[in-house]
Design a protein that fits this description.
Radius of gyration: 19 Å
Number of helices: 2
Strand content: 35-45%
Largest sheet: 4 strands, antiparallel
Strand order of the largest sheet: 1-2-4-3
Low-confidence stretches: 20-32
Distance between the termini: 62 Å
Structural class: alpha+beta
Length: 101
């Protein structure tokens, strides 16, 4: 029984450290709100949603079309999704970044 407890504890500890190592270090964002690429104006937009205890809040990424619409983007070029867990998994933030014209 004691060996089983130690084995389960070791597996849980390895899973905890593996999940922390796979999260992005910093979410600096896609850059400035407007930039020039080949003479065209490139716009960026972002949105996030927060979930507490995996229950309270919207458990998904904000839709790319809504982020584009809110930021005046008519032609979507790229969409990026990031998930950032909080301390001990109490909160989780879902980010959507959109670039385009």
């Amino acid at each position: 029984m004691k060996k089983m407890f130690l084995l389960v504890s070791a597996v849980a500890l390895v899973a905890l450290f593996a999940s922390c190592a796979s999260t992005p270090g910093g979410l600096g964002g896609p850059g400035p709100a407007f930039s020039q690429v080949n003479g065209n104006s490139v716009k960026t937009g972002e949105a996030s949603s927060t979930v507490v205890f995996g229950i309270f809040g919207k458990v998904s990424f904000p839709p790319a079309w809504q982020v584009a619409k809110d930021n005046g983007i008519t032609k979507i070029a790229t969409v990026e999704y990031y998930k950032q867990p909080g301390v001990f998994g109490i909160t989780t933030k879902y980010f959507t970044y959109v670039t385009g014209e």
